[in-house]
Design brief:
heterodimer; A: alpha/beta; Rossmann fold; CBS domain Like; 2 domains; 37% helix; 24% strand; B: mainly alpha; MetI-like fold; transmembrane (chain B); Osmoprotectant transport system permease protein (chain B)
Chain lengths: 317, 246
């Protein structure tokens, strides 16, 4: 568990972060969101001591991070940033091996770890390991950035707008991959973003910041249903909130038994793992109020009606 | 394939080297070629010192002056690029500029009363003249390391020394080499005027040619100097490419 207690950082008279309190449970993804200059990056950098707080403490699993030298602390915490910052003079292999080398792993251990990570990111070892970063696409560079952050098996990873510079398609694919990897490894991630869609898609908990203050922290669903007046409710979007709420859940959560509807061969179908937003989009597109829901093997496992979708997205009383 | 590639890489330098060796070692066979340029009854080939000796002295002067300049300029640039030394940047910069602004001839004239005739005045002039390109290029090289790369190095837990040796220096190296190359090329040419104060080098052939109105000497000495500069330029460019990242 990561605890930020009364964390404050001033630059001159300006309080970049003002008395911030936040708890992130182990195994969670927490998104710090806000406009530029709201203090979210400063907050993130205080967790690995790139910036020292003016006052307040950061505890990781109950231990004050000031109890160890900053370099040692940082080697235990994964760190991935916008623009990636891969070392251009080193190969993909050497980039990934950076922290394990700093920690003095044996070359066999490092070799095994690099293989493992490239495997995890679905990148072929032979074709990628010995390339220089300049010969990678933006998405590939970002993947290697994540691999480098994960190399020494950290329990915690800090990410500062890691997907900010990517095109929308690549961004979405990497977000999904990240979520899968995070689930698989069970690590805690604290992610800085200004993109509410990204926060909703990835995070278990969203912390909204403005002017150095934490305005609200909640699960994505709670944040969409009950945003605090003002900045937060503007951020989560007025009317579009309904669609964002739908995007939080998968069809399998809400589908009904297929027998409740009269499905025929012409009824369009959708996979159970898709989101409710996808389902509504398909209903509109196909002009079909009911969709057949199919499982992984393609068999019908239920049905979903437009009526049910509409009721879920409704404005809270 | 491999041979062809090697030939393309090194062919130019090889041709220059052969020409250089011919002009230095094959002086006797050059006689008929240079004869028409020399005045009657005067020798067409400079004979007071062997050319190979002169080339050696010339290169030695440049080597000593520029390696000293490189060590000092690089250390100074490193120092002023650290937070602790940032205050000294303007001072270091104006000193390096001063070295470049003083014409080498003036430096020679000033240095002779202080250190006497011989190689010392030339070494001082070349040293001062060589500082600026290396200093400025080292600063530019260190400044060209992308912020994201430096941030990442810090965030991954590299110590300041590790960041310097493993990230900043390797990335700045190509530009530092460019600076050294510029200084070497400039000083190969500039070293010729050292002969006016009795430094050994190819300048003495050219100056003897000017004094005796012997165009053959001037051309012979000038060609060797030019070829040396071209050869070293080519070799340094290869070195830069070798350390380039992209």
């Amino acid at each position: 568990m990561i605890e930020l207690n009364n964390l404050t950082r001033s630059f001159g008279d300006h309080k970049a972060v003002d008395n911030l309190n936040l708890k992130v449970e182990t195994g969670e993804i927490c998104a710090l969101i806000g406009t530029s200059g709201c203090g979210k990056s400063t907050t993130l950098k205080m967790i690995n001591r790139l910036i020292e707080p003016s006052s307040g403490t950061v505890l990781i699993d109950g231990e004050d991070i000031r109890n160890q030298p900053p370099e040692q602390l940082r080697r235990k915490i994964g760190y991935a940033i916008q623009g990636v910052g891969l070392f251009p003079h080193r190969s993909v292999y050497e980039n990934i091996a950076t922290v394990p080398r700093l920690l003095g792993w044996s070359s066999e251990q490092i070799d095994a770890r690099v293989h493992e990570l490239l495997d995890l990111l679905k990148m072929d070892f032979d074709s990628f390991a010995h390339r220089k970063p300049s010969r990678l696409s933006g998405g590939e560079q970002q993947r290697i950035g994540v691999a480098r952050a994960l190399a020494a098996k950290p329990d915690l990873m800090l990410m500062d707008e890691p997907f900010g510079a990517l095109d929308p398609l690549t961004r979405e694919r990497l977000q999904l991959e990240l979520k899968q990897i995070q689930k698989l490894l069970g690590i805690t991630i604290i992610l800085v973003t200004h993109d509410i869609e990204e926060a909703i898609r990835l995070a278990d908990r969203i912390a909204v910041m403005d002017g150095g203050k934490l305005l609200q922290q909640a699960t994505p669903e709670e944040l969409l249903r009950n945003p605090r007046e003002g900045f937060v409710s503007n951020l989560v979007g007025g009317e579009e909130r309904a669609l964002r709420l739908l995007s939080l859940r998968s069809i399998s959560d809400l589908m009904e038994p297929a027998e409740c509807f009269e499905l025929n061969a012409a009824t369009p179908s959708i996979e159970a793992s898709a989101t409710l937003r996808d389902a509504l989009a398909r209903q509109i597109w196909q002009q079909s109020p009911v969709l057949r829901v199919t499982g992984e093997n393609g068999d019908t496992c239920g049905a979903i009606s437009m009526e049910r979708l509409l009721s879920l997205g409704q404005r809270p009383e | 394939m491999k041979f062809q590639q090697q030939l393309r890489n090194w062919g130019g330098s090889l041709v220059i080297l052969c020409l250089l060796l011919y002009l230095t070692l094959g002086a006797d066979s050059l006689e008929p070629l240079l004869r028409p340029l020399a005045p009657e009854n005067a020798p067409a080939i400079y004979a007071r010192n062997s050319f190979i000796d002169l080339v050696g002295w010339h290169l030695l002067l440049v080597l000593i002056a520029i390696s000293t300049a490189a060590v000092i300029a690089i250390l100074a640039a490193l120092f002023v690029s650290r937070p602790a030394g940032a205050d000294f940047l303007p001072l270091a910069r104006s000193l390096a500029n001063l070295g470049q602004t003083l014409p080498p001839v003036a430096v020679l004239a000033l240095a002779v009363p202080a250190v006497g005739f011989g190689s010392w005045p030339t070494l001082i002039a070349l040293f001062l003249y060589g500082l600026l390109p290396i200093f400025e290029n080292t600063l530019a090289g260190l400044g060209s390391v992308p912020t994201t790369v430096k941030d990442a190095a810090r965030g991954l837990g590299m110590s300041p020394l590790q960041r310097f040796w493993q990230v900043e220096l390797p990335l700045a190296l190509p530009l530092i080499i460019t600076g050294i190359r510029l200084s070497v090329i400039i000083s190969i040419g500039t070293a010729t005027i050292g002969s006016t104060v009795a430094a050994k080098g190819l300048g003495e052939v050219i100056i003897a040619g000017i004094l005796t109105d012997n165009l053959a000497f001037v051309l012979h000495g000038g060609l060797i100097v030019a070829l040396m500069a071209m050869l070293l330029d080519g070799l340094f460019v290869k070195l830069e490419r070798r350390f380039a990242t992209a």
